[in-house]
Fold this protein.
Amino acid sequence: MSVAGINVLVEETRARQAAAGAPLLAVSGVSTYYGSVAALRGVDLTVGEGEIVTLIGANGAGKSTLMMTIFGAPQARSGTITYAGQDITRLPTHAIARLGLAQSPEGRRVFPRMSVFENLQMGASLNGGRTFAPDLERVCGLFPRLKERLQQRAGTMSGGEQQMLAIGRALMSRPRLLLLDEPSLGLAPLVVKGIFDAIRDLNRTDGMTIFLVEQNAYHALKLAHRGYVLVNGRVTMSGTGRQLLDDPAVKAAYLEGGHGAAPGA
């Protein structure tokens, strides 16, 4: 399908979705395998327009696999993924990106030999760079450190600066849904606070819909409107961010040293 055709489809499905009150993203009964090993087992979750929804869980629970499955690599073996009223389960990654989804993957994955400016140009390439100047201004306003380092090679920056760049690069495509995979991983507490403040600002100021995968359960649930708990590839709990923060099982497993059994394990 051409870019123009995809854009028309997006507008049509957006109108249908608004009329029906359907979630922007719906994951229904999704199972994903690596060879014969099940990484996701019948996962169900939704993300509504304008929400911040978080997915928490321990290492190896399948959080990053779900994020990658939504983006088409790997593809789900069963179940459906619907975005803006369209089934995207079998679409290739590049087609999904053109529908208005953007991802900041785990581990940052910037282009280390390219400058900060060139990394941001790569993010803008999805919409042809038509709004590059205002988008660059917005990203630099959100992360002033990037403005100071536009000509610096990305690989020479600190981990926190690279995370800012990874999020900024995703924002350059003007996404309707932003997927953030472990944005606080390996960062100092002060940097983590800045990252989460930026995520909050994106949602409150721009109304951006955000699906956040995080190990830092406290910060993620405090920020999110709703959350899900993933254990061994299955969703075992869901609720508002406050409900999950106050849940004794969640506290024991994720908020008080992580010594309790994971909920539903």
In short: The radius of gyration is 18 Å.
